[in-house]
Write a structure and sequence with these properties.
By secondary structure, this protein is of the alpha/beta class. It has one domain: Formyl transferase, N-terminal domain (Rossmann fold), CATH 3.40.50. The chain contains six helices and seven strands. Strands 3-2-1-4-5-6-7 form a seven-stranded mixed beta sheet, with helices on both faces. Strand 4, helix 4 and strand 5 form a beta-alpha-beta unit. Helix 5 packs across helix 6. The protein is globular, with a radius of gyration of 16 Å. The model has no long low-confidence stretch (mean pLDDT 96).
Length: 197
């Protein structure tokens, strides 16, 4: 079967996006990157995507009256590029049920905690304050509840006695860069097995 057409949604520098682009540049990877979208015109990751030869476009959320009209513009760009699967990589917008349902089973996200623990923000601070022995990251399907979708894969790191939220975040990010391309490949295989809608 042919490779799935991948879009990556970002809001900033896109370090996880870059790892996905590198993986998708390999001929034997089950997805090919065809589009990077950002809700911010100044997102560094847009230039990174272009340097990898991938179409990159800003759809600034501030240009739209409400979330729905912004997401309709996002959806139009995705459909224009015949996207099959979406990876959120530091995309800092909560998506509406309309958009989530439209891409259900074809959109995944990476989150810096061992879900279902610590959905939302300040995950590393919360893990340290709770006295957890380990932290990590999860790649999951996007559902209507924030960080509530089924987990595809996880990576774990120990929490050290002298860890701060930043030192822990730095170590988890290293794991994210390995985990996300692996989890996306697993997700692509699941999408390919589904009957066409």
């Amino acid at each position: 079967m042919s490779r799935l057409r991948l879009a990556i949604l970002i809001s900033g520098r896109g370090s996880n996006m870059e790892q996905l682009l590198k993986a998708a540049s390999e001929d034997n990877y089950p997805a090919e990157a065809v589009l990077v979208l950002s809700n911010k015109t100044n997102a560094e990751g847009l230039e990174t995507a272009r340097s990898h030869g991938v179409a990159a476009k800003a759809v600034p959320h501030k240009d739209y009256a409400d979330r729905e009209s912004f997401e309709h513009a996002l959806d139009a760009a995705l459909r224009e590029h015949d996207v099959d699967i979406i990876a959120l990589a530091g995309f800092m917008r909560v998506l509406t049920p309309w958009f989530v349902r439209r891409w259900e089973g074809r959109m995944l996200n990476i989150h810096p905690s061992l879900l279902p623990k610590y959905p939302g923000l300040e995950t590393h601070k919360r893990a340290i304050e709770a006295g957890d022995e380990e932290a990590g990251c999860s790649v999951h399907w996007v559902s209507e509840g924030v960080d509530e979708g089924n987990v595809i894969a996880q990576a774990r790191v120990p929490i050290l006695a002298d860890d701060t939220p930043q030192t822990l975040a730095d170590r988890v990010l290293v794991e994210e860069h390995t985990l996300y391309p692996h989890a996306l490949a697993l997700a692509c295989e699941q999408v390919k097995k589904k009957p066409s809608s």
